[in-house]
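Most newcomers find our protein records easier to grasp once they have seen one. There is nothing in a record beyond a sequence line and a structure line. Getting from the letters to the tokens is the skill we practise here. An example says more than a description, so a record of this kind follows:
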Amino acid sequence: MREAIVQYWPEGATSRPTIAELAQRDGPRGIAERYNAFARAHGAETIVGAEKLSDGELTGALFEVIAEGHLNQPTFIYDFPTDISPLSKQKADDPSLTERFELFIAGMEIANGFSELNDPLDQERRFLAQVAKGGQEVPKEVDVDYIRALSHGLPPTAGEGIGIDRLVMLLTDSHAIREVVLFPLLRAAAGDAEDSSDPAAEGTGEAYEKQK
């Protein structure tokens, strides 16, 4: 992920970052500030709320705005920050990163995979940190049932999930997920007795996950 940020750093932006700078404490913060200054001057997408994000979250945000759209050919991105991978096992040689990858094609995430975190104490710490930080996309309480089940023991485990709807989008050259989703989420339109497709069904993986 850090390599992708460096490779696709926008032309004309000052001070292309290095992988070492992205790995330093508070390094991503300075890089995000440089990128936002460039983006505001050129009408590009900025990182919103950068001052509230951690180093790992800023790394993920930098990747999304700088590199993701360039990944047209099948590309595996790996070494995701721990801060944005709450269920993934940390790398033994660098606890700030996890054993996680994603497959991108045509600028879209197609698959996500990782080694499962099987340490219940570490998992509980991460859940508690998530809840304490808060936010719309963050759980409001610790999943104690999951922690209890994990405490009984989980062998080394890994896996990956494929976004079937996105894969169908790719194969059929569709431009919105609502064109291919098998069971779209329906809701009543204001003042209308009939249901209509949820606009949130279109676009990102976050919308896809909410549909499920």
Summary: Confidence is low (pLDDT under 50) at residues 193-212. The helical segments are 2-7, 19-23, 27-42, 55-66, 120-133, 144-151, 164-172, 205-211. The radius of gyration is 19 Å. The longest helix spans residues 27-42.
